[in-house]
Amino acid sequence: MQKKLILDTHLLNITVNRLCQQLIENHGNFEDTAIIGMQPKGIYLAEMIHKKLEKDTGTKIDLGYLDTTFFRDDFRRRETPVKANATKIPFIIENKNVVLIDDVLYTGRSVRAAMDAMIAFGRPKKVELLVLVNRKYSRQLPIEPDYVGKDVNTMEYQKVLVELEDQGFKDNKIWLINKESK
């Protein structure tokens, strides 16, 4: 198994700053905008972006966490059941702009499940997708992000690993891992 560093701590910080600036340009004071991190790993990026946006704008911004376990199309197909995470959305998303955040966009199936799960909290005015890594050439559904930290060309046998300090890692880094190809 080989690991290749895609983004180190310095470049990852620059990337997150750029994503935050793009959000500020498009959402201004975030009056009608909420940020929702996808469980399990998207919440760490959502928290990082939320904290920076509140600091940069001086505005309180709604933040929630969304679990999609029971909305996934492969929920009953797995040999071992997937453990559900907590959904925490302490606000109504009816008529709000929602920025859905995940660390890696791969097949698009998790995002589809998230959109289904969100409807339980109201009908948003608009949903945008922000991902730290957009895995190219792997989509199974016609879903594309509105905000991308880094586009990465990947093969089926490769994996993208996001390590964030908030997850307990020493540094913020993103790796491309070459697993054994078949």
UniProtKB/TrEMBL annotation:
Keywords: Glycosyltransferase, Transferase. It is an enzyme of class 2 (transferase). Residues 6-164 form the Phosphoribosyltransferase domain. InterPro entries: PRTase-like, PRTase_dom, PyrR_bifunctional. Gene3D superfamilies: 3.40.50.2020. Its EC number is 2.4.2.9. NCBIfam families: PRK05205.1-5 (NF003549). This is Bifunctional pyr operon transcriptional regulator/uracil phosphoribosyltransferase PyrR.
